[in-house]
Amino acid sequence: MRLVPAEQPPLDILRTSKAGALMIRGGAIRTVGYAVTVMLGAATSVFLLRGLGVNEFGRYATVAALLGIVSTLSDVGSTAIGTRELSLRPTGPEREALIQDLVAIRVLLASAAVVLALAFATLAGYDRTLIAGVLVGGIGVLLVNTQAIMMVPLSVDLRVGTITVIEIAKSAITLLAIAALAVAGASLLPYFTVQILAGLGALALTPKLVGSFAQLRPRLRRSEAKTLMREAIPIGVALAMNVLYLRLLVVMVSLTTSKTETGLYGTAFRIVELFIGIPPIVIGVALPLLVVAGSEDLDRLRYGTERLLQVAVVASMGLALIVTILAEPTIRLLGGAQYVGATHFLQTQIWALVPLAAGNVIVITLLSLRRQRDIALSNGLALVVVLTAGIGLISVYGGEGAAVAGVAAESALLLASIAFLTIAERSVFPSLRFVWRPLVALAAGFATMLVPLPPGIDGVVAAIVFGVVAFAVGAVPHEILEARRRRAPGDGS
C-alpha cells in the first residue's frame, strides 16, 4: 500500500477476468485494514471508558449514537449511487463533474443533518454540554463524510489499499487524540472535537491520492443533482433507517433507563459497533463489479451474490462466536470490573452481525438491479420492528430487551430483502444450500465450551476449531483460496 497516486486502471477492468480476483484481494485488504482499525478502536475504547467512567460514558455514547445518525443522513445514499454511476461512466471530465456534484450534495446534506440533530437534542432536553457536543461532533462528521465522498473514485478503480491507508490514518489520529484527553483528565466536551482532527487530517491527504482540490471542489449542477437525488433518496432512506434503528436503541435506553444502564448498554454497543462496520466496508468492495454485472450479465450477478453471501455468513458467524465467548474478559480488559454488567448485552447484540452481514449482500444486489425502492421498504419494516419490539422489551428488560430488539430488526431486514429480491429477479437469487456448512462449524466452535479452559484461551480454541471445520466442510468458497495463490497483473490496490 502506498500514498503516492497510482495510474488509474481503465474502466474496462470491471469487465475483465481480473476483476473478480481484484475484488477478492480488495476485500482481503479491507478486512486486514479493518482489523487494524478495530484494534486501534479497542485501544481508543480503553481510554474512553477509563477516562470517562460509566455514567459520563453513557452521556458520550448517547451523543455518539446521535452523530452516527447524522453521518448517515448526510449521505442519503449518495455514496452508493455515486459508486454505481461512476462505475458506468468513462474516466475523464464526466467523472470529475459527477464527483464535484457529489461533494456539493454531501456538504449541503451534512450541514442540514447537523441542524436537525441540534434541534432534536434541544427538544429532548439534553443539557448544554451534550448540545455543544452535538454541534462540535457534527462539524467533525461534516469533514469526515465530505472526505469520504471524495474517495469514491478510488473504490470504483479498485484501489482498495489506498482507501485502507486513509481509514487507518483516521483511526490512529482518533486514538492519539482520545489518549491525550484521557491522560490530561479532560471533561466530556473536548472528546467531541476529536472527529474534527480526524477529518482535517484525512482531508489533507486526499488531494495527493485522488487529485487536486480544484478537481474535488464542490460544484452543483442542478439538473444532475436532481437526477442523483431522485436515485439516491430511496437508498438514503434505507441506510438512514438501518443505522437509525441500531443507534435509536441507545437513545431509547438513555431516555427510559438509568445512567448506569445506559452506560453499560452503550459500552456493549461500542464494541459491537467495531464489528458491524465490517460487512458494508468489505462487501462494498464488490459493488462496482456487481453494478456492471447487473446491467450486462445476470448469471454473473447471481454467481457473485452467492459467493459473497457464503463468505458473509461464515465470517459473521465466526466473529459472533468469538465475541460471545470472549465478551467478559474483553470488557474487563477495556473498561475494568465496573463495566462487567455489559457482558450479557454484548453477548446478545453481537448476533445481529449475522443477519446484518447477509443482508448487506442482498442489498447491494438489489442496488445493482436498481431496486432502491425495495431496499427502502425492507428497512422501513425493520424500523417498525425495532420501534415496537424496542419500546415493549426495553420497558420490561432494559438494555437486554434493546439488544434482543436489535437482533430482531436485523433479521426482519434480511427476510424482507430476500423476499424483494425473489420477486424482483428470481434468477439472481442465490442458492442457500451452503448454509449447513457454517452451521456445522458454529456447532463445533460452541462445543469447545464443554471443555473447561482458562478465560481467553477458550475463545482462541473455539476460533481455531471453527476455522478448521469451516474449511473441512467447504464453508469457505474455493475462489478465496485460488485468489490467494494468484496475483493478477495490474493490481492497483
Write the layout of secondary structure elements.
Elements: H1 18-73, H2 78-87, H3 93-123, H4 128-150, H5 152-156, H6 160-184, H7 194-210, H8 213-216, H9 222-256, H10 259-276, H11 278-284, H12 287-296, H13 298-335, H14 343-349, H15 353-368, H16 372-397, H17 399-424, H18 436-447, H19 457-472, H20 478-485
Task: Explain what this protein looks like in three dimensions.
The structure is a single chain. By secondary structure, this protein is an all-alpha fold. It has one domain. The chain is built from 20 helices and no strands. It has helices spanning 18-73, 78-87, 93-123, 128-150, 152-156, 160-184, 194-210, 213-216, 222-256, 259-276, 278-284, 287-296, 298-335, 343-349, 353-368, 372-397, 399-424, 436-447, 457-472, 478-485. The chain is globular. Mean pLDDT is 78; it is low at 1-12 and 486-493.
